[in-house]
């Protein structure tokens, strides 16, 4: 489920002096298809600059280039997924998933970059697109499903997690370790 007031939440969190950077993400799970084969995938709609300020994703792009805000229907995929789909930079793939009303939607995307990770699951499942492209297909407007936060001091994560839980009790609040053990890029 997406956060209906996510713009307000993002703005409020970003003003906190403990927060170094923040990135809102739109998520979808579905099928990704190339001309020869298909696979399941996690589609992550990002603001390229915000995401890079939190995860340094651009540093993991080993072929092609990182997403730019002007890119329309462009995608970055993991090396393992590229091998599985038998695609490369400049290949086209089709993402198919459900919108917020349960309708099946699809979009054709051109691969602009391929990333590598120490975690093969990330490489095989995650696809990154511009947030506006995914939100447009999904009909989620400016709302996000997930917010990634980078604190100035990593030692403050447990305390800040409690602050977020108290401030937003209806939202799931997890540290990176809780969310995805061993998934560091």
From TrEMBL:
One family name in Pfam for this protein: MacB_PCD
Annotated transmembrane regions: none
InterPro entries, A to Z: Lipoprotein-release_system (IPR051447), MacB_PCD (IPR025857)
GO biological process terms held by the UniProt record: lipoprotein localization to outer membrane
Domain (MacB-like periplasmic core): residue spans on this chain: 12-161
Superkingdom of the source species: Bacteria
GO annotations of cellular component type: plasma membrane protein complex
PANTHER family: LIPOPROTEIN-RELEASING SYSTEM TRANSMEMBRANE PROTEIN LOLE (PTHR30489:SF0)
Protein name per UniProt: MacB-like periplasmic core domain-containing protein
Native source species: Mangrovivirga cuniculi
